[in-house]
Amino acid sequence: MKHILIVDDSKTSLAAARSVLCDTYKVTAVTHGAQALRFLKSNTCDLILLDINMPEINGFMVMEKIQADEAHAHIPIIILTADNDADTENRCLENGAVDFIVKPFVPAVMRSRIGRILEMEDMRRQLADKLESKIREVCDMRTQACSDIMTGLLNKAYTEKAVADLLSSGERGYLLMIDIDDFKSVNDTYGHIEGDNLLRGLADILKKHASESDIIGRIGGDEFLLFVRSGDKKMICAMADSVISDTKNLLRNKEITGNASLSVGIAQYPEDASDFTSLYTAADKALYHVKQNGKNSFHLYSDQRAKETARGKELITLQYLNDIMVHSDTCGGSYRLDPDSFHHVYNFIRRFIAQSGRDAVTLLFTARSDEDAVSPEKLERAMDNMEQAMYMSLRRADVVSRYSSRQMVTIIMDADAERGTIAAQRIIECYDRLNDGCGVTFDFGMAQMEKPDIPTRV
Description:
The protein is an alpha/beta fold. Helices cover 51% and strands 20% of the residues.
């Protein structure tokens, strides 16, 4: 049953209204405005019949207080009064009443008006519910359209648009390009499920350090963007350092060993760029600098540009360039590179041997163990020993890289199959001397480096 609250200081009118309505509706009757307001503090109803002329708190005051309360502002109010003049009726309607009934009322007319208004209120609520449902549906569709399913962050397209829109409005800030180092080896060694969990963990770390006004998105497999809308250089460096540190702890907690870490490139708007594309490029260059200089760190494009600008103030000679580069090469053994850098060097060497007529071989060392499942700690120790053995056994012209958590790769210059085999055996012998009983051995595969067809320029 619909619930009607009747507010009237006339007990006669109150009794008459109750008598007319009680067969169809649940009725609560009170004799003054204060009592009605107290009732509504802990109850609600579907319609209010409200007398205007009451002592202490008149009907207009009661109506004003009800409509100011968000919980009850939607309740339709019908004015019940003996004042049968246009001004009073107009004032009631202007103050939010939905109808006006003059006393003494005609029972049939009262029931008809109340029934019509309750029916209209039901229709209004149904329409409001449908509208709210449609709004939620549209919001869900928009959320799905702009979200990355894996992490719950914004996807690439929406992230770039959101940052570009902010920059267009003149918003200042820092763009952080974030990349998981050696993420492929995580998937290869621990499986894609664990790799996905790592991505979600990094997303949580970024949300922890960002404010609600910042923009966070995943723009690729293991690449993320974070636009920070406030702060200074000191603050942004502290944030980047904390994100890297938290990621290191995440890897440790997940017992992920190897070369996985986090690199961050940072560019500032508008100091480093005038639009989103330029800012993105600047952050990408800063990230590349980190990748080429040991990873597991962050770098600001402004620092890199400042060094380039400082170097540009004085032109150098080729002899000076040769001297400073030679003096910076202090390593005694083979060059050790990360897989991304090794990829570029590998292709450079292929071109070089094609042009020079020289030869090179590639050696791939793979860790083996008699144990069914060697522990990550033993495997990591064995890989460190193998890396050291290769460094000690090879020449300065040779190149080494830890390809994954259980494989090392090297390029031996000026070598055929015989010389490659001798080099491989020398490395394994050195590893055996360094081996501390971890139970891991290495075997190797060898391939002659193919020479690409390079067109001759006329």
